[in-house]
């Protein structure tokens, strides 16, 4: 089974589970008329909508590149995450509004025993499915699956808090525990929705993924060869699970085109081997200048004008800059 098929099947599982659990939660609300249970049920409606959109985005992300999408369709996963976060944010705002009214004008809660039983069962299912989605999403570098799984975590947490509120109401008779829990959950949902939107915008705007860039630079440094005099202007873009990497590599100016091509091919292959996803890499070869002699490792260079002094170690601070390195 391909990674695209795996992601699509897990997305379908998330959708089916979300539909089943939202029905259970609204039945629990019918029995209890609890504000906390209603909060949980409303948040689960968002699960259904977002799981459906995530499923569609996983289908699109798995499509091959075409003339209209030369870098593939992976960016739609970031759009899915933003859509999910936006709906969660709006749900959190509505829940806060509704819970505030209920806190000011509390109403009795009925059948808390059945409410606790039903919500606890949904929490167990959500935790299990959410854990599966997050683990697989991280392994396959799918932001849509990870986002969907984290949303199920949130849903499980709301169910646990709602159950605890029902237990407190039953034990103490204080009805405001119910609306107080709903207020707490509304604020929590609001914050998490905003965080998901923020991550979505970061991906769509190609914000630097520091961890991936650092990993690429570290691999180049670890596998460094003498003809690779200097690397700069290194950039990494993520398209769904796949990576697009480009950089400038300074090489001896007297190398033939065939020699340069061989070195560039080796660079691309070692980076592709480092990551478990599809990597598209473009390396622009720059001819060296005599200013690079002092940091060049070519021991048998026939045109060296200056003695080698020391190697410039590539790191996150210097490899991403659009300028050649030189010693002071």
TrEMBL record:
Residues spanning the membrane: 12-29, 41-61, 81-99, 114-134, 154-174, 180-197
Annotated Cation efflux protein transmembrane domain residues: 12-205
Name this protein carries in UniProt: Cation transporter
Claim: Glycoprotein is one of the keywords in the record: no
Location of the Cation efflux protein cytoplasmic domain: 229-288
Membrane association type: Multi-pass membrane protein
Pfam families in the cross-refs: Cation_efflux, ZT_dimer
Protein's cellular compartments: Membrane
Keyword annotations from UniProtKB, A to Z: Membrane, Transmembrane, Transmembrane helix, Transport
Family: Belongs to the cation diffusion facilitator (CDF) transporter (TC 2.A.4) family.
Signal sequence region: none
SUPFAM superfamilies tied to this protein: Cation efflux protein cytoplasmic domain-like, Cation efflux protein transmembrane domain-like
InterPro entries: Cation_efflux (IPR002524), Cation_efflux_CTD (IPR027470), Cation_efflux_CTD_sf (IPR036837), Cation_efflux_TM (IPR058533), Cation_efflux_TMD_sf (IPR027469), CDF_Transporter (IPR050291)
């Amino acid at each position: 089974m391909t990674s695209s098929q795996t992601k699509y099947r897990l997305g379908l599982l998330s959708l089916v589970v979300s539909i089943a659990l939202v029905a259970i939660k609204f039945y629990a609300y019918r029995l209890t008329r609890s504000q906390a249970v209603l909060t949980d049920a409303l948040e689960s409606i968002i699960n259904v909508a977002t799981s459906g959109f995530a499923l569609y985005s996983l289908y699109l992300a798995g499509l091959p590149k075409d003339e209209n999408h030369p870098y593939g369709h992976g960016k739609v996963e970031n759009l899915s995450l933003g859509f999910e976060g936006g709906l969660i944010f709006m749900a959190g705002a509505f829940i806060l509004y509704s819970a505030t009214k209920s806190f000011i004008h509390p109403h009795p809660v009925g059948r808390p025993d059945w409410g606790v039983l039903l919500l606890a069962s949904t929490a167990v299912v959500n935790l299990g499915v959410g854990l599966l989605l997050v683990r697989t999403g991280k392994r396959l570098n799918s932001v849509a699956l990870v986002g969907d799984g984290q949303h199920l975590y949130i849903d499980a947490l709301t169910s646990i808090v709602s159950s605890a509120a029902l237990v407190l109401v039953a034990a103490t008779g204080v009805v405001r525990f119910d609306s107080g829990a709903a207020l707490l959950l509304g604020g929590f949902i609001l914050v998490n929705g905003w965080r998901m939107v923020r991550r979505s915008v970061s991906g769509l705007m190609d914000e630097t993924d520091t961890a991936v860039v650092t990993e690429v630079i570290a691999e180049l440094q670890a596998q460094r060869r003498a003809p690779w005099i200097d690397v700069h202007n290194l950039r990494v873009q993520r398209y769904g699970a796949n990576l697009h990497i480009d950089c400038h590599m300074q090489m001896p100016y007297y190398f033939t085109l065939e020699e340069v091509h061989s070195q560039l091919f080796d660079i691309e292959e070692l980076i592709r081997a480092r990551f478990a996803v599809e990597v598209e890499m473009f390396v622009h070869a720059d001819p060296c200048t005599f200013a690079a002699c002092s940091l060049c490792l070519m021991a048998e260079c026939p045109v060296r004008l200056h003695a080698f002094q020391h190697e410039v170690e590539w790191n996150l601070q210097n490899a991403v800059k659009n300028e050649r390195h030189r010693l002071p």
